[in-house]
Structure formats: structure tokens, C-alpha cells
Amino acid sequence: MSASLPGSRDLPISQYDLTTYWGRVKQSAEIADPRTLFVSASGLENAKRLISSYKQGHVKSMTPEMWQAKKVVDSTLHPDTGEPVFLPFRMSCFVISNLVVTAGMLTPGLQTTGTLLWQITNQSLNVAINSANANKSTPLSTSKIAQSYFLAVSASCSVALGLNAIVPRLKRLSPGAKTVLTRLVPFAAVASAGALNVFLMRGEEIRQGIDIYPVLSDAEKEQKEKDGVEAQSLGKSKKAATLAVGETALSRVLNSTPIMVLPPLVLVRLQQTEWLKRRPRMTLPLNLGLILTTSIFALPLALAAFPQRQAVKAESLEEVFWDKGGKDGEVEFNRGI
């Protein structure tokens, strides 16, 4: 993100009002815009130069070209390292990366082998995305990543296979109700394992804490720009890390809910129509279309549930930070995505 580029002058965080949910939705839609995936290496370097020129005071005001450069940088670079996030694991590629995997998990009539393979594939992708977009001030070791991966895979497979075995035995339910519940089994597996995956993959942040910074007033920002100094971390907070990881886990559940619930329920109804009964080969493209459409709208809505750059009262964190709050006694940190 732009915060990782050189220069002491702060860019406007967004052209939208991030104190409102819909402002964050618009901002998240820009971060998740798949068109940024087609920006070339030279285009990214040009965007970085534009942003750096603003942060170093060479450009005085934000222009449409500058906002576009910020969009490219924010959707490509990690805010802590300043390095490009591997393309398949960027939020701008999230819908595309998850399309085939989600369609596989929601395929009607999956047997045990298929269920296991798709759950393993999904959790592998989740681990990669969580690791690539995590707060990097507290890195995770390879052994911890492997441990988290196997625990998440075990959880998702256990939930999926367990519910697939239980649902058919529910004698009081009608065949139609059983069909609906069977189609929703992947959602239960994905939601539970997805949240667990975030906590496991970012558990080191909770154990060690993440960097927090004072919220600066306008006067302090101007002085920082004049002095040419970078913001200094106040230290690592475990409470801030717990909040950051918890909100990220909840946003993942919010994202998976419409994607894993709406398409299978709509497909169940469509499969009862004469049109689809006469054209069974249309089931797969219909499934893909439903998942793609839902994903495009669901991702920005879920990402916007909580601010990425979060400000909280210093008194809500460890006692060592109580007298270190900035403007209005607040500190801020990168929540991660």
C-alpha cells in the first residue's frame, strides 16, 4: 500500500468517507477491482513514483491521475513490506481465485473423495491468502504455517464429512429439506474452518502483538512532513492483535455466507424447473455464474465491515500505552485483510 512508500507526507487515506460503511464499501471495491491485475510492472513503478512524489512534497494536490495511482498501489503492495502481494493472493484476484474452488465445493452430489479434495484445496488457498495479506510486523514461521494448515484442513474436512453423514439420518425432515441442508454443508465447513484458519495463521500476532502508532492531529502531520520523519511504532500490542485477527475472521465469515448460501439455494430451485431438467449441461455454467455474481458484490461488502487502518482508544489496550495516545487519545494499527 501507499503507506509503505518513501516520504513523510501522508496521502489522503481515501477519496471516500471511511468513517461510514458505504464509504468503506466503495474503497474496498477499488482494492478488489480485478482490472488492477492487468497493470504492468512499468505501470506499477510509475504509480509508485507518482505516490512518492506526493509524499515527498513535489506534487501539491491529489488529481484523478494520483487517485488512480493510489488505487494501483493499494491493491498491489503489502502495507507493511511495500512489496507486491503474489498476484493470485491479492484481494483484487480473490473472486477469480475462489471461483473454481467454490464451484467445486458446491457441486451437487459430491462423494466423499470429492468433498475431501475440494475442502483441502479451499483451505490451501485460504492459508496462502491469509499469509500473503497478514500484518507482517509479526512474521509467522514455516512450521507454524504448516501446523495451522493441517489443523484448518482437519477442521473443514471433519465438519463437511460429519454433516454429510448426519443430514441423511434426520428422519423428521422432508426430502426437500434434506436436499437444501446437504447443499449448505459446504458453507458450514467453509465458515467454521475459514474463521479458524485466520486465527491459526495469525496466531503469532496475538501471542507477540502488532505495531501500533499514535493518531496524529493535522498540525502534527504538517510538522512531521516538514521534519521529514517517518511515524515511529509505540510498540507491539497483543490486544490490538486480538482485535485485528478477530475482525478479519468475522469478515471472512461475512464474505463466505452469501457466496456459499445463495448460489446453492437458487440452484436447487432452478433444478426443479423444466427448462433445466431438459438442459442438465447448463447446471455447471449456471452454478459458476451464480457464484461469480454473488462474489463480486459480497467481497467489498465483507471487507468494509471493519476499517483496515483501525483507530482505537489507547486506554482499551495494554496499560503501557495508556499515556501514549495521539489525537483524542487514540492509536492506530494495520488490521490486515
Characterization of the model:
The chain is mainly alpha-helical and 337 residues long. It is 59% helix and 5% strand. It is built from 12 helices and 4 strands, in the order H-H-H-H-H-H-H-H-E-H-E-H-H-H-E-E. The chain has helices at residues 21-31, 41-55, 64-76, 94-105, 112-133, 142-166, 175-201, 203-208, 218-227, 238-270, 274-278, 283-303, and strands at 210-214, 235-237, 309-313, 330-334. It has a 4-stranded antiparallel beta sheet with strand order 2-1-4-3. Helix 7 (175-201) runs antiparallel to helix 10 and helix 10 (238-270) runs antiparallel to helix 12 (283-303). The longest helix is centred in the last third of the chain and has 33 residues, at 238-270. It is globular and about 70 Å long.
What brief labels describe this structure?
337 residues; four-stranded antiparallel β-sheet; 12 helices; 4 strands; 59% helix
Give the CA-CA distance, first to last residue: 12 Å
The dominant shape is globular
Low-confidence stretches at least 5 residues in length (pLDDT < 50)? none
Strand order of the largest sheet: 2-1-4-3
Largest sheet, strands/sense/barrel: 4 strands, antiparallel
How much is the average pLDDT? 85
Structural class estimated from helices and strands: mainly alpha
Q: Count the strands? A: 4
Topology of helices and strands:
Elements: H1 21-31, H2 41-55, H3 64-76, H4 94-105, H5 112-133, H6 142-166, H7 175-201, H8 203-208, E1 210-214, H9 218-227, E2 235-237, H10 238-270, H11 274-278, H12 283-303, E3 309-313, E4 330-334
Antiparallel strand pairs: 1-2, 1-4, 3-4
Helix pairs in contact: 1-12, 2-3, 4-5, 4-12, 5-6, 5-7, 6-7, 7-10, 10-12
